[in-house]
Amino acid sequence: MPLLVDGRRVRLPQSAGDLVRAHPLLEERARLLRGQSVQQVGPQGLLYVQQRELAVTSPKDGSISILGSDDATTCHIVVLRHTGNGATCLTHCDGSDTKAEVPLIMNAIKSFSDHTQCGRLEVHLVGGFNDDRQLSQKLTHQLLSNISLKLDLKIPFFFFNVLELNDREENESHFPIIYGIAVNIKTAEIYRASFQDRGPEEELRAARALTGGPMISIYDAKTEQLRIGPYSWTPFPHVDFWLQQDDKQILENLSTSPLAEPPHFVEHIRSTLMFLKKHPSPANTLFPGNKALLYKKNEDGLWEKISSSGS
């Protein structure tokens, strides 16, 4: 299946290395991103996107100026941006159902599109590395093939920082170079980033993903509101057993890439498991009346809870 790279049609490669060797400009762009220092992004004006979430907005947004996500090892962070109106979508894909997720991503960005407007869609893929189980390679290929198919080949891949391009080796083990990125909605700048604030409702959103929740859109750019839920899940199997395990067991059994996880991974999993134990049936305790939790940025650029909404 062909792709469109910088206006040139090319065959879908077997690996990231094949594509880069054929198009050195991609490697140069990847090198520039890798060479950046990691910026700590504060909560003001930020919309943080967790695993299996997507968010889309435009420069007209008066509340959100930055979309971002991190903690990607075998996962990929995908950014789509329309050069005409600046509409930008960021999502954190883990390969659970790429075929179903790509149409959601495409429809999210297309909802901002004006077919008479000049411009094109840019795609930025960041994440993954040469992991032992080749999960990154599988996800890269799934994203490339499904996005190119969905867009009928009309895609220039501007940033392609995955697999070999995002891999470093240390003591015969492989690690990602870039774990997280942010995109400035107003300027279109994409840069390496990490985030202290992953809220609101960080544990609730993480619990939904850990229990197998599908990809969802979390932000309404028209109302400039973050909408969480209502969610439901079945009780997490053997939650007490997992909470009794040591760090090594949690890392080896609940991670796709145990050696490459960031330092806070186990703590994050434990807190999410504790949350799931406390809320085995979230519809009853977290979403009374089956109403969503709504958040909006206040004058200081921070999330503030507003009245719940009906389903």
C-alpha end-to-end distance: 41 Å
Radius of gyration over all CA atoms, rounded: 19 Å
Unreliable spans are none
Biggest sheet: strand arrangement? 10-9-7-8-5-15
How many helix segments? Answer: 9
CATH architecture: 2-Layer Sandwich
Just give the CATH class.
Answer: Alpha Beta
Oligomer: single chain
Tally of individual domains: 1
SSE class: alpha+beta
- Strand-and-helix sequence, N→C? EEHHEEEEEEHEHEEEEEHEEEHHHHEE
Please report which band the strand proportion falls in: under 5%, 5-15%, 15-25%, 25-35%, 35-45% or over 45%: 25-35%
Arithmetic mean of pLDDT: 88
What would the principal axes of the Cα set say about the shape? Answer: globular
Question: Which topology does CATH recognise?
Answer: 60s Ribosomal Protein L30, Chain: A
Approximate helicity band: 25-40%
Largest sheet: 6 strands, mixed
Would you report the number of β strands? 19
Protein architecture, described:
With 311 residues, this protein is of the alpha+beta class. The chain has a single domain, classed as 60s Ribosomal Protein L30, Chain: A. It is built from nine helices and 19 strands. The protein has helices at 16-22, 24-34, 98-110, 135-150, 202-210, 239-244, 247-254, 265-278, 282-285, and strands spanning 2-5, 8-11, 39-41, 46-48, 53-57, 66-69, 76-82, 88-93, 121-127, 157-162, 167-170, 173-176, 181-184, 190-195, 216-217, 219-220, 225-228, 292-297, 303-309. The strands form five sheets. The protein has a six-stranded mixed sheet with strand order 10-9-7-8-5-15. Strand 13 and strand 14 form a beta hairpin. Helix 1 (16-22) crosses helix 2 (24-34) and helix 3 (98-110) crosses helix 4. The radius of gyration is 19 Å and the shape is globular. The mean pLDDT is 88.
